[in-house]
Amino acid sequence: MSWAGPEDIYLSTSLASYLDRKLLVLLRDGRKLLGILRSFDQFANAVLEGACDRVIVGDSYCDIPLGLYVIRGENVVLIGELDVEKDELPPHMKQVSVKEIRRVSRCCGVFKIFSCCSSICELWKTIGEAIPILSKSG
Amino acid sequence: MTLGNSKPVVRRRNLLLTDSLPLSTFEHRDALHRTSLRFSPLERFNGLFIRLFFSYFKDLVGREVTVELKNDLAIRGTLHSVDQYLNIKLENTRVVDQDKYPHMLSVRNCFIRGSVVRYVQLPPDGVDIELLHDATRREARGLQSECMLDFEGRIVL
């Protein structure tokens, strides 16, 4: 993001048009922060007021309040302007409490580890079966 | 610092605009002039095609593109603007796989940091390959035959 030079007078990729608006900021670690943009700079560093972290697990979500956040620009993936006339999320999703979403995300994490382990086991089995075939032909 | 009139190179430090460059000095610049891709000597000295893609994307403003990010999110939208870091602003955005990204439902305009872009998918008629080839070839040739410029833009070789 740059301050518009003389030749860029009709072209502006600055975040100035997003100031004082509620935005969705996607971060590199997958977090989704919502908040009002109060400040930015040429590195896409941003200051979000009233920021909350929207955690989505399956069909449930929760907004964890964070307060005033300063985000380093290198972690920013996308800054999106939310359309106030539209729903922020699909209607089938339901909001749950912070405790509930933490519990669900922990379970999900464990489930992911289990499924990873089982797919790794499958992979080793396949390799084990393939080696005698390969050595016979090779 | 003042420059004598005999020196062919105008001080570059404050000028990134190439409009003021003497076109006769570099003959290939005439071809670039036609393609609207212009480069200042300092940028060419850097050895990088810093502004080649910037200028190219500037010409694509208003076209429908799909930006695929490094986190596998693909966003389709109208290219609103681009800057020197190749940050992209899109309008009328919609996510390609909407069900996977429910949080993006109401996002219509977005700013995408250049560093997270993996691909920019263009409309097939949005690319004049020959023009791009010519500009790239000329730049490469220009870089080879270019005389060395110092920080101030004065010729040293």
From TrEMBL, chain A:
Keywords: Cytoplasm, mRNA processing, Ribonucleoprotein, RNA-binding. GO terms for biological process: cold acclimation; deadenylation-dependent decapping of nuclear-transcribed mRNA; hyperosmotic salinity response; mRNA processing. It is found in: Cytoplasm; Cytoplasm, P-body. One of its GO terms (cellular component) is P-body. Residues 10-85 form the Sm domain. It comes from the Eukaryota. The keyword Ribonucleoprotein applies. SUPFAM superfamilies: Sm-like ribonucleoproteins. GO terms for molecular function: mRNA binding. Its main location: cytoplasm. Component of the cytoplasmic LSM1-LSM7 complex which is involved in mRNA degradation by promoting decapping and leading to accurate 5'-3' mRNA decay. LSM1A and LSM1B are essential for the formation of the cytoplasmic LSM1-LSM7 complex which regulates developmental gene expression by the decapping of specific development-related transcripts. Required for P-body formation during heat stress. Component of the heptameric LSM1-LSM7 complex that forms a seven-membered ring structure with a donut shape. Belongs to the snRNP Sm proteins family. This is U6 snRNA-associated Sm-like protein LSm1.
Automatic annotation (TrEMBL), chain B:
This is Sm domain-containing protein. It is found in: Nucleus. Belongs to the snRNP Sm proteins family. The keyword Lipid metabolism does not apply. GO terms for molecular function: RNA binding. GO terms for cellular component: catalytic step 2 spliceosome; Lsm1-7-Pat1 complex; P-body; precatalytic spliceosome; U4/U6 x U5 tri-snRNP complex; U6 snRNP. GO terms for biological process: mRNA splicing, via spliceosome. CDD domains: LSm2. Residues 52-126 form the Sm domain. Keywords: mRNA processing, mRNA splicing, Nucleus, Ribonucleoprotein, RNA-binding, Spliceosome. Coiled coil: none annotated. It comes from Trapa incisa. It comes from the Eukaryota.
